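Quick one, tokens below. Sequence please?
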């Protein structure tokens, strides 16, 4: 975000019993396997429709909302099988201090619902941190950091938690980073993304929250951001799926949900 963070990790992670840590060779194997699962998940998620609700609020010193950005988007398919984003609700932006940049849009789309696939593994340092328990989910935790950065590309830096049985990411905590234009005064919040098991197999992102202070050169601004991913439904068709441009259908009526408190740590659906 531009001028126009530190987020405290939500409690709930604890050491996962007395299970032994894997060996170095086992850790390498775990990374290889969960990256392959993530690649499969990314492919599968591309065949789902869902609703994404984004709300970003500027807060005053007492935590009261001031300006707001909100957008509700349906990710759907046309009858021809083309995947599109259809904006169904987008009130006038009332942000007063900050403004969304192209980098923010990239983070909303690609970094905050972070997926670490086989093809992305060579681009990151991945360091095993230990076993942790997220509610009833036993996890491996890894610190993730890009090895190098290319202009125009956004990267994730932070921590991921991987289910030690499904070998899929169930939670991420960190921020989007990348190379910026010289002398630009952009700041990006730390965020926490939860996933939930959908259709009894894959872990899909369902909730992202950030509650940070962005420290610009001339001012600091506290913000709260929530993103909900809802109503996942598998698209079933015999046609070849194609990816098209963003569309905006003004005839659609908004159906919004009000973000509440952060959910409990991820749970498997029965």
């Amino acid at each position: 975000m531009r001028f126009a963070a530190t987020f405290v990790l939500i409690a709930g992670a604890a050491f996962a019993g007395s299970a032994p840590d894997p060996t170095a060779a086992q850790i390498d194997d775990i990374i290889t396997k969960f990256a392959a699962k993530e690649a499969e998940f990314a492919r599968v998620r591309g065949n789902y429709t869902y609703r994404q609700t984004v709300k970003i609020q500027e807060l005053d010193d007492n935590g009261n909302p001031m300006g707001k950005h909100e957008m509700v988007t349906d990710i759907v398919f046309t009858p021809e099988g083309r995947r599109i984003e259809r904006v169904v609700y987008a009130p006038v932006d009332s942000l007063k201090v900050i403004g969304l940049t192209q980098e923010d849009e990239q983070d909303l789309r690609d970094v905050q619902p972070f997926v670490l696939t086989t093809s992305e593994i060579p681009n990151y340092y991945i360091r095993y941190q230990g076993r942790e328990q997220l509610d009833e989910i036993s996890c491996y935790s890894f610190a993730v950091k890009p090895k190098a950065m290319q202009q125009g590309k956004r990267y994730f830096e932070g921590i991921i938690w991987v289910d030690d049985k499904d070998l899929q990411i169930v939670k991420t905590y960190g921020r989007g980073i990348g190379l910026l234009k010289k002398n630009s005064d952009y700041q990006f919040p730390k965020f926490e993304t939860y996933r939930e098991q959908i259709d009894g197999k894959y872990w899909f992102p369902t909730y992202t929250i950030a509650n940070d202070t962005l420290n610009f050169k001339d001012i600091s601004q506290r913000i709260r951001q929530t993103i909900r991913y809802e109503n996942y439904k598998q698209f079933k068709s015999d046609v070849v799926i194609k990816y098209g441009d963003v569309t905006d259908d003004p005839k659609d009526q908004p159906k919004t949900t009000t973000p509440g408190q952060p959910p409990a740590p991820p749970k498997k659906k029965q």
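Residues 5-16, 238-263 have pLDDT under 50 and may be disordered. Residues 25-248 form one domain.
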